[in-house]
Specification:
The complex is a heterodimer. By secondary structure, chain A is mainly alpha-helical. Chain A is built from five helices and two strands. Helix content of chain A is 69%, strand content 9%. The longest helix of chain B is centred in the C-terminal third of the chain and has 36 residues. Classes of the chains: A mainly alpha, B mainly alpha.
Chain lengths: 141, 806
């Protein structure tokens, strides 16, 4: 039986972008309001999951041509790298720093923290693992 | 490291060379190379006689583990030298004999000589070590190398059985000995035997002395094949005959004797030492000689005879230890027992070694050792016959051979027991000479059986596997030397007394030696008309009668119930232990994870609860408890309802959904307890895990897909109630008992100042305690790769299987 899921696909096209945008919002505000790498990552993979449900694995794979296992590795390296970065400044492992900068686009007094880079690592790992698990199980039959 | 150390270790070093010699010098029998070493050592040790007979000792120390008081200290005194000479002397003879006994082409000679050299070095180490731990180390090497030698023909079932049996029994004793050594160390603070003997006061009145004594004796008794541990020795006769001659007559079985002699200054104050050694020695003597009569195998007779003779030496040492209690006696009559023990030790090594070699020759030249098939070899093997005559007559205690002298002294020692007035010996002491006499009669009988059944009577050529002829000269050299020693020591026993016996006695009885009294060791053939002489005459007369009528009374051996035999107990014990442990393992290692969880939870509950109440840690304090609002009540009811439905659900689907309800309720709890990050995370994680549950549910195989209701089990209910109870108790108790203020204040105050963030949870996760997070995401990564690997690898396996199927 062939199902015409036009409504689902159309809604997905809109909604998944909203979800992903929201997840990026959650990720960036993590240092000040609830959110952060973990929940942002989960939310992003939720958006991708919606795409998977509306389309099929191959389609999503062609839209987002990532090997999510490499995403996990990238995330872990990023988190580890921010930790190691502290060592270059004669500080203990995983020492974070932050500062306020005037940036052209983001406005004055923008807070930039190395902890965010660490959080980005967390984000990438979480996206990577959820997508790896779901893709693996989905492909397995 | 002195020369002495190198020489004691030289057999080990030489053993390394043996395989190369065997491999590259195929034309020469490897034994010829090996022979050099014990011969050289024997000559080297002979030099010490001059030193020890003047009462001096040689001590050489090589530091091994000084921080633990374990040093490789060698100590050459009379006793050690006596044994060292026995080991190297008989070692040379046995090596010479084995060159002719073992075929160059058929046997794995490199194995044989490596094991033999290991054994020789270990024995030298045992008898010359002053440090008890080093002694124990060598002791275990003797067990190990003797195991290897008994199992030399490892393709035979019986060899492996005998090797295993001897290993189990001697290692059991060895470990007991180690226990005794450690107890001694705890009491005296030193491992050195000389220091322990010098500080005997430390042992006075120690409660650990008796356990140490018993453990040391266990070690000595198992090694020296004392009743009831003698059962390994007859089975060890599966070894090649040179091994039997060396290990099981002259050296290893005397390691226990050595230990008793060496440590008797330490323990002989204790009544248990005298009683245990005398009783076990005399019962071994009797049982060994009694059992030897029924044997039909030449080596079987010799094995039981060895057991019996070892019991005799042991009982003499036991009686001799009484000499310390009679210090005041002008002419200490118990010293004669120690003299007899040492003298018989030497004699036994000579005649038993030669008899074993005779048995080997008979076996080698006729193809059998069964005395029922043998007979009439006297004319065919005149030299062997002569050696056997000397050996067995000496063993029986017939003059003029050396066995007669030591047997006389043995009887003297036993009769002297009657003069003791300690340990209630005036009542039961009479048993010792009586049993000794009866055992000597049996000794006479089996010696005669051994000799006459083999060499006289009718020649049964049709039963023999080979046509018998005299052994080659090389094979006869060693037994001839030993037999002539038996004769020489018989005629001139006093050449031993000042050279070997007195120095050895000084080591066994140091307190008497220190008192300045000289040992008067004059071994004479003719003592006058003493009770011992009449006892010997009685032995010969009764023994001859018994030997001639042996067929008429040997039925008593068949009467002896097989079920009471010690071997039966050993075999059944071994089987029973295996079955018992298998049964125990099976009874609780069911293979069901459910059962293991029950064990874990039951132990968790019992241990936690009892510790809670034993330490009186439980108490209820409600002062810090926040007021309970209506939302909490509603959510709690929801969560409890979800949990109950999960447990009681009839179908899996209901259980999954109910578990989801619990999960979402918890995220609501996080909301009302003001944990937005947790609530968000819990919500998404719960969704994903429910989705995964559904996935598993969907993929359950068809066959077992029974929508069965969870079966009710009372035990599970009780265990789960118990665990819930324990966790609740601990929750309440730990909440009521807040010992320190929380550290959360620091995070609240410093998170913006120090880390530039306002979301404290996130700041803690990525900044204050980012280290944890780093490894949590690593865990997640591992989980993802794990799932990937499981799923993908299974797929490739399946495709392989399909490929093979086609």
């Amino acid at each position: 039986m062939k199902v015409n899921d036009l409504i689902l696909k159309t809604a997905t096209n809109v909604v998944s972008f909203i979800i992903i945008t929201f997840s990026i919002y959650l990720f960036f505000t993590g240092h000040y309001t609830p959110g952060g790498g973990f929940i942002g990552g989960l939310m992003t993979s939720g958006g991708l999951l919606l795409l998977l449900l509306a389309y099929d694995l191959e389609t999503v794979q062609s839209i987002i041509p990532f090997d999510f296992k490499k995403v996990i590795a990238t995330g872990l390296l990023l988190a580890l790298g921010t930790g190691i970065g502290g060592l270059f400044f004669d500080k203990p492992f995983l020492t974070h720093t932050y500062g306020y900068f005037d940036l052209p686009f983001f406005g004055e007094d923008t807070a930039l923290a190395t902890a965010t880079l660490f959080d980005l690592g967390v984000y990438l790992v979480v996206v990577g693992i959820t997508m790896t698990i779901i893709q693996t199980i989905g492909e397995s039959e | 490291m002195s020369l002495l150390h190198l020489l004691v270790l030289s057999p080990f070093l030489f053993a390394i060379l043996v395989p190369f010699l065997y491999r590259y010098v195929r034309k020469v029998h490897t034994g010829w190379f090996v022979l050099i070493l014990p011969l050289a050592l024997f000559i080297y040790f002979l030099q010490f006689i001059k030193l020890t007979s003047s009462g001096e000792e040689v001590v050489r120390t090589f530091e091994w583990i000084p921080s633990l008081d374990i040093n490789f200290t060698l100590h050459v005194d009379g006793l050690g030298l006596l044994f060292a000479l026995l080991i190297t002397g008989i070692g040379s003879l046995v090596t010479l004999y084995s060159i002719y006994y073992l075929s160059k082409d058929k046997e794995a000679l490199h194995n044989f000589y490596v094991y033999l050299l290991l054994f020789m070095g270990a024995m030298l180490g045992v008898v010359l070590s002053d440090n008890l731990i080093v002694l124990y180390t060598f002791w275990e090497i003797t067990s190990l190398s003797s195991f290897l030698l008994i199992g030399y023909w490892y393709k035979r079932e019986k060899s492996r059985y005998g090797a295993q049996k001897s290993m189990l029994i001697t290692v059991f004793g060895g470990l007991a000995l180690l226990g005794g050594i450690i107890l001694l160390y705890m009491m005296t603070g030193t491992f050195s035997i000389r220091e322990i003997i010098a500080n005997l006061d430390l042992l006075k009145g120690e409660a650990l002395l008796l356990p140490a004594l018993i453990l040391v004796l266990l070690g000595a008794f198992t090694k020296s094949a004392q009743f009831p541990f003698h059962i390994w020795l007859p089975d060890a006769m599966e070894a090649p005959t040179p091994v039997s001659a060396y290990l099981h007559s002259a050296t290893m079985v005397k390691a226990g004797i050595y230990l008793v002699a060496r440590l008797s200054p330490v323990f002989s104050d204790h009544a248990a030492w005298f009683i245990l050694i005398s009783i076990f020695g005399i019962s071994t003597l009797f049982w060994g000689s009694f059992s030897a009569v029924k044997q039909t195998d030449l080596k079987g007779i010799l094995a039981f005879s060895t057991v019996s003779q070892l019991g005799m030496i042991m009982s003499l040492l036991g009686v001799g230890s009484a000499s310390l209690h009679y210090d005041y006696l002008e002419n200490n009559i118990f010293i004669v027992a120690v003299t007899a023990a040492i003298f018989h030790l030497i004699n036994h090594a000579t005649f038993k070694g030669s008899l074993f070699m005779v048995a080997g020759i008979v076996d080698h030249e006729t193809g059998t050792r069964d005395i029922r098939k043998l007979g009439g070899l006297m004319g065919i093997m005149p030299v062997t016959f002569t050696i056997a005559l000397i050996g067995s007559f000496s063993m029986a205690g017939i003059p003029p051979f050396n066995g007669f002298l030591s047997k006389e002294m043995f009887l003297t020692g036993m009769v002297n027991v009657l003069k003791m007035d300690i340990y209630h010996l005036e009542t039961w002491g009479i048993l010792l000479p009586v049993i000794a006499w009866v055992a000597s009669v049996f000794t006479f009988v089996y010696s005669m059986i051994l000799f006459f059944r083999t060499f006289t009577g009718k020649l049964q050529l049709e039963k023999l596997e080979k046509k018998p002829h005299e052994a080659p000269v090389g094979m006869l050299i060693s037994p001839v030397i030993l037999a002539s020693l038996a004769v020489i020591f018989g005629f001139f026993p006093n050449i031993l007394s000042s050279t070997l016996i007195i120095p050895a006695m000084k080591s066994i009885l140091p307190t008497i030696a220190q008192s300045g009294r000289e040992f008067d060791v004059e071994i004479k053939h003719w003592h006058g008309f003493t009770p011992e002489l009449f006892m010997t005459i009685g032995i010969i007369v009764i023994g001859t009668i018994l030997f001639l009528t042996v067929r008429k009374w040997s039925f008593i051996y068949e009467r002896f119930p097989q079920k009471l035999a010690l071997n039966h107990f050993y075999d059944q014990g071994l089987v029973g232990t295996e079955r018992g442990s298998a049964w125990i393992m099976k009874s609780f290692m069911s293979g069901h994870i459910r059962d293991y969880l029950v064990y874990i939870f039951v132990f968790l509950s019992i241990i936690s609860l009892s510790s809670l109440f034993v330490t009186n840690a439980f108490h209820l304090d409600v002062t810090n408890v926040a007021p309970i609002g209506v939302y909490e009540i509603i959510l709690s009811l929801l969560a409890v309802g979800g949990a109950i439905i999960t447990v009681l659900a009839r179908t899996r689907m209901v259980a999954i959904i109910a578990a989801g309800v619990v999960g979402y309720t918890i995220s609501l709890f996080f909301v009302i307890f003001r944990a937005p990050d947790l609530a968000l995370t819990q919500l998404v994680v719960e969704t994903i895990s429910v989705a995964l549950f559904l996935l598993c549910f969907f993929h359950l195989p068809e066959i077992t897909k029974k929508q069965k209701r969870l079966r009710f089990r009372l035990l599970n209910l009780l265990v789960s109630i118990g665990v819930g109870f324990v966790v609740t108790m601990f929750g309440i108790a730990s909440h009521s008992e807040k010992l320190f203020p929380s550290i959360s204040k620091y995070f609240v105050e410093e998170s913006y100042e120090k880390a530039g963030g306002k979301n404290i949870v996130n700041v803690i996760l990525v900044d204050f305690r980012g280290f944890d997070t780093l490894f949590e995401i690593t865990v997640l990564g591992i989980a993802a790769f794990g799932i990937f690997a499981i799923v993908k690898l299974r797929l490739t396996k399946r495709s392989e299987r399909e490929h093979e199927g086609k």
